[in-house]
Design a protein that fits this description.
- Helices cover 22% and strands 23% of the residues.
């Protein structure tokens, strides 16, 4: 039986026994296009993203079924205008559809989520070898399709849009039917079984309209003159060598066991609906993992469908996994629901926070989650910034984004997860920003504008800056007691090699290396209002106009104060609406590039990019408005910006104090050397590092801020140094020369620190701009390797030879007049 087959070979044997597998006449080209491989093979790059499209199609099918069952044309004027309104209308009949909680899964009790989720299920089966792939079966009680409609629906190509004009579905691009095929085993086998809801079959009936239809999709390898594979599906009905294309197989039954019940993948009957089975699916990273565990499929679907419209029930039905009865099924409700449920336990106080941004004239909403140390991995892997449209992930930036110097949040890189809701952007912008596969970003002008806006948002986020300093203090202060040995070593080195002083920051070593930003948010709980009672410029009475000055090549920053809750601009229900306009000649023009207001515990910061066509001396007048469902009139705040001349961004407009005078006195260490903060990391602490150290790790650095005023664009970057004192190669040397333990350890630490300082200095020089030596600038971001990654990678390579090199070179001696081999030779 095809439904219960769990390997490709079982399917092939069944079809061979029926006489179908080896006879090409029974197989019809997918989409009736023999060149379909070029279309089907150019979709999702990851198996989890492809699987998500199947889930989205099941959600859409359920919404469409409810709409059609009520006699509503999905494309007509009576149809719901959004996904949320459709959920409220069809699944919450006793609730006022205008209620602020209508259509939101986070407002549903667990019992309701479970009950609705039984209409869309995903079951994992399979008995293959130890490294075998699972089979995934998705079933839904959606509208279903008649056998004769299979070619126009399930088996059509992405070039045909079946739901483009339906406003309350996500799957408008016809991607779900084919993206997963390439990840199904060797032959790319997929089973489709479906029956149309009998209540939707009207008029003069074709007897087949009430039957179940089924087919198998496969990939046929190139043969003879055919240069590419072709996807085909089993369509033997009415087919012979003269009749041409046939139809899918069909049968009559009042019900079919397509839903799981407990651990039985096909234990519950359905009178209609659809089952799609993916054989031997390449579930990278979780193929042999219990799908409900932390690193299983559930976590991936949660992240890729953070605001799924309807819940889905997941069942782990593979017998190799053991456990109590309740550990084999659960409900998928989307990551935002889980984050809200777990917020008190896992989120840092004051988070999540929200901020509108505008880039390229496109409005988006950013929600920032900061987790307690070690908790973020519960919700994501390498994802740092997730871009969503209508609750589905369309692409992401890795968490290394937070370690960019332009962001400066290395200490929080493993504790942040940010969502950028792009649901409001225009259709053209969506096409430009996201690949058609909806799992990757396209790097174009809009992408880089959004990237820059996110950098600005995070760099100026008071809550994140305060949290970063607290994390840094916790990680370092226990190790910063007596650093006199380091100063003594550097004093000796700099006495012999004065040029090394150029590697260090200028300025005396601070007794306390941690910032004490009194302007940051308080550690005490903040209790904001769901609907703010005021929103005004910080320190000013409401209604007073603010005057500011801003350099033409820098952003203008404005601070507001309010009593709004931190998620006022990003929450799902009754969110606040911010608008910014430029006023001129009695007209209002929307500002196309701004970041904020970024809400954090009663302070809202706004960063505005001045118009490209403004001139020095211009006075720009702006109007900022804030409104929500409770306000008749919005809060209005007007401010004027006087445009000043451009400044050297690198220096922040301030001359850097320099002195070419020789140091006075007998001190061998140049005055004003700021020593780096160094932490020795032992093996017992490896796992606590994120990512974890191993025996080959030598040195890791973390960006700790910028010397000078935090609001300056320029300044010198500060790094903290983490040295693995249980490095394999150091331990090998220590074992051989026990008596020299302290000397060897010091050589290893300070040698790596000096090596790292040299790489940091070279990175700063390269990032300053193109030169003859370095070609183009290599500032971190835009895909280039960050200096933190470069230092870690380079020191892993140098660690095996560092101590032998210091020992050997220190003992080199040459007689006067004797040249080194090769010195003076040409070539």
């Amino acid at each position: 039986m095809l439904i219960k087959a769990d390997t490709e070979q079982e399917v092939i044997d069944i079809l061979k026994h029926a006489g179908y597998w080896d006879d090409a006449v029974f197989w019809r080209p997918y989409g009736d296009n023999e060149s379909n491989y070029s279309i089907i093979g150019n979709q999702q790059a990851r198996s989890d993203a492809a699987l998500v499209e199947k889930v989205v199609n099941s959600v859409d099918a359920r919404l469409l079924n409810e709409c059609l069952a009520k006699g509503i044309d999905p494309e007509g004027p009576e149809a719901p205008t959004s996904i949320q309104s459709a959920v409220a209308r069809f699944f919450e009949p006793d609730l006022n559809p205008t209620s602020r909680t209508a259509g939101r899964l986070e407002e549903w009790p667990d019992s309701k989520r479970t009950d609705v989720a039984r209409g869309i299920t995903l079951a994992a089966t399979g008995f293959g070898p130890k490294d075998g792939r699972p089979c995934f079966s998705l079933a839904d009680s959606g509208e279903g399709q008649t056998p004769d409609r299979f070619p126009e629906t399930f088996l059509s190509l992405p070039e045909k849009s079946n739901k483009l004009r339906i406003p309350f579905v996500q799957g408008k691009f016809n991607m779900g039917g084919t993206g997963a095929l390439r990840f199904c085993g060797t032959h790319n086998l997929q089973l489709i079984v479906s029956r149309r809801n009998p209540a939707l079959v009207h008029g003069k009936q074709n007897p087949a309209d009430l039957q179940w239809g089924f087919t198998v999709v496969r990939r046929q390898n190139p043969i003879g003159a055919v240069r590419s594979s072709v996807y085909t599906y089993l369509a033997p009905t009415g087919c012979d060598h003269k009749a041409g294309l046939g139809g899918v197989l069909r049968f009559t039954a009042e019900s079919m066991p397509i839903f799981p019940e407990g651990r039985d993948a096909f234990g519950r009957l359905a009178r209609w609906g659809t089952l799609i089975k993916l054989y031997e699916y390449s579930a990278s990273g979780y193929s042999n993992t219990h799908i409900l565990r932390k690193d299983g499929l559930l976590a991936r679907l949660d992240l890729l469908l953070p605001e799924i419209a309807l819940p889905v029930r997941l069942h782990e039905c593979r017998p190799q996994f053991k456990g109590h009865e309740g550990s084999f099924e659960t409900t998928l409700s989307g990551l935002t629901v889980r984050l809200e449920d777990d917020k008190a336990e896992n989120a840092e106080p004051g988070f999540p926070t929200s901020s509108p941004i505008s880039a390229g004239g496109e409005r988006m909403t950013v929600t920032t989650y900061a987790f307690k140390s070690g908790r973020a991995d519960t919700y994501r892997k390498n994802e740092g910034i997730v871009f969503t449209v209508n609750g589905q992930t369309h692409g992401y930036l890795g968490r290394e984004f937070f370690s960019r110097k332009s962001v400066g949040l290395s200490y929080l890189a493993d504790s942040l997860l940010i969502f950028v809701d792009c649901s409001e952007i225009s259709g053209r912008a969506r096409e430009d920003l996201f690949m058609a596969s909806r799992d990757r970003l396209s790097k174009n002008d809009l992408y880089y504008e959004i990237e820059s806006a996110l950098e600005e948002l995070l760099k100026q986020h008071d809550g994140l800056r305060t949290l970063k300093e607290r994390r840094r203090r916790e990680e370092l202060e226990s190790r910063l007691g007596d650093e006199r040995p380091l100063e003594d070593v550097l004093e000796s080195l700099l006495k012999q090699y004065p040029t090394l002083s150029t590697l260090f920051l200028k300025g005396q070593r601070a007794t306390n290396p941690f910032k004490t930003d009194k302007g940051g948010p308080s550690e005490s709980p903040y209790n904001g209002e769901r609907y703010p009672t005021f929103f005004r410029f910080k320190g000013k009475e409401y209604g007073l106009e603010l005057a500011r000055e801003s350099h033409i090549n820098m952003r203008c920053r404005i601070a507001f104060e309010t009593d709004a809750v931190n998620d006022y601009f990003s929450r799902n229900v009754d969110r606040g609406d911010f608008r910014l306009h430029l006023l001129a000649n009695g007209n209002r023009a929307p500002v196309s590039s701004y970041v904020g207001p970024n809400l954090q515990n009663g302070v809202a910061t706004l960063s505005v990019q001045l118009p490209a066509n403004c001139c020095v001396g211009d006075q720009l007048r702006f109007l900022a408005t804030v409104s929500d469902a409770t306000r008749i009139e919005p809060f209005e705040n007007r401010f004027t910006v006087m445009v000043k001349g451009a400044v050297d961004i690198k220096s922040g407009g301030k001359s850097s104090p320099r002195s070419d005078k020789k140091q006075s006195g007998d001190s061998p260490v140049p005055a004003g050397i700021a020593l780096p903060n160094i932490k020795r990391v032992k093996e017992a602490e490896w796992e606590a590092q994120k990512p974890a150290f191993d025996k080959y790790t030598a040195l890791r650095i973390k960006h700790a801020g910028v010397a000078g005023d935090r609001n300056e664009t320029g300044g010198t970057d500060i790094y903290d140094f983490f040295v693995n004192v249980d490095n394999l190669f150091l331990k090998t040397e220590l074992k051989a020369r026990v008596a020299q333990r302290e000397v060897l350890t010091a050589r290893f630490i300070y040698g790596l620190v000096l090596f790292g300082l040299g790489l940091i200095q070279e990175d700063a020089r390269s990032a300053s701009g193109p030169t003859e030596e370095n070609g183009s600038g290599t500032a971190d971001g835009n895909g280039s390797e960050s200096v933190e990654k470069r230092v870690e990678r380079a020191t892993r390579a140098v660690a095996p030879v560092l101590l032998p090199m210091i020992e050997a070179l220190g003992g080199l001696q040459f007689e006067p007049g004797v040249e080194l081999a090769g010195a003076g030779e040409e070539g």
